[in-house]
Amino acid sequence: MKKILSKVLSRILIVGCLIALQIAWVLIFMYRLTDYSTIANLLLRLISLIAVVQLISTDMNSDSKLAWAVPILLFPLLGGLMYLLLYQRKPTRGLRKKLEGASERVWTLAPTGQEVLEQVAHEDKAAAGQMHYLQKTAGYAPYRNTEVTYFSSGEAGFPSMLEELEKAKHFIFLEYFIIREGEMWGKIHEILKRKAAEGLDIRVIYDDVGSLTYLPYEYREQLEAEGIRCEAFNRFVPFLSVVMNHRDHRKILVIDGHTGFSGGINLGDEYINKTSEFGYWKDNVILLRGEGVWGLTMMFLSMWNGIRPTDENFEQYRPHTYHPEEFSGNGIVQPYSDSPLDDENVGENVYLNMLHSAQGSIEILNPYVVLDDQMVTALCLAAKRGVDVRLIIPAVSDHKIIGWVAESYFPHLMRQGVKIYCYQPGFLHAKVFFCDGKLATVGTVNLDYRSLYHHFECGVLLYHTPCLEQIRKDIKATYEHSLELTLENMKHTAFVRLVQKVVRIFAPLI
Q1: Any catalytic annotation for residue 429?
Q2: CB-based burial, 332-343: b 16+ in 10 Å, e otherwise
Q3: Domain 93-132+139-330 belongs to what architecture?
Q4: Can 251 be counted among the known catalytic residues?
Q5: Which of 19-33, 354-368, 458-472 has the lowest mean pLDDT?
Q6: CATH superfamily, domain at 346-509
């Protein structure tokens, strides 16, 4: 009985019912209004016309324009009004102002990276171009003197996370899309409570929507009572608003400024394969130790101080503050993030730059493949240039509709020479681009509209780091458990193909 009551009274069910009531009220109101008023009818049609003009003049990609144009044309009395009310690419003005202000304060401390850029330009102009873009346009510096370890699964990286957390002596910063109560978070939580009792500065950011069904509503207050400073990003409210689209999808753990983790995993038991309804959960973790951790620290401090301004002095969190010795490490790392605050699609542009500059091969691991025109063109052109383009996707998707949409792209990609492999043991959640064996990016950015346009994301660009060999071996092992798709084994019924085409039109809104 308690389980039934907990489901009936769950936050997500209550919020869902409230939103459904709002939608029903709007539909009934609009129907009654237009039924009794010719002026209202004409006014709504005029609003739809204005919406179409505004839609055409925006700088959004053509796929998003089509996804909005169809409902406006199908429902001219309602579609235009819904577009003007709901479409908002950027977060609210208040949230933007706070986050931008904090970011400006923090990122003045970023190094120029000019010396590194000049050195790489003599070795590899393509890699230098990618780094130049991230530094000059997006503001993220490249770093030397950073050791990097790549773990090919969550359960492989988790012991290292616990080990480094136990070593913490000054502060721990943690920012994740999902925190889910269970064994993984339980072990981390115990360490955080103990370290907080010892007087360390412990801070946690989790996304309120990402963790909506996994944490109690007042979980933030619970952690605060334990001495752990905590913020739930962009609290979910039961109102029709596209502001709820803007989520903190990043995965960042920073310890004492000199040790940091990122990658694909969230903090839940499925990510370390303790529980999973989708078979084996294939993911990754990346560990940085050295100067490059400053990039992750600045990302966290920007977000934290945008939500809750508490820091006057950021210098105390630099890598050498609690590690005066020199760092080692070969190659170059360049942590970066993407934000819906601006018009720069950093995550997508990093991927596009790699596709355009690839000479021999580019291998991609990604769970959600809902592509815009630019990405489709880049993949196909790379294959037509003779680049060995390979995409590995999961056999089992945790979002059925997204899986259907993804399959609709595959026949065209395969005809252009792109090879697509389906990971058979379960769900592949890792996000990796591996280019020509010398350049890679590992992070949180999915190949879908939410990641590329609406979410706060992060990644780490890797150039000639020893861990590239670990990534290469991981990809090779993944092929061994994958089935190459062909036009023959991708055949579907006419009905399924029709559903895929219809759903694909609305992919940017999913």
Answers
A1: yes
A2: bbbbbbbbbbee
A3: 2-Layer Sandwich (3.30)
A4: yes
A5: 19-33
A6: Endonuclease Chain A (3.30.870.10)
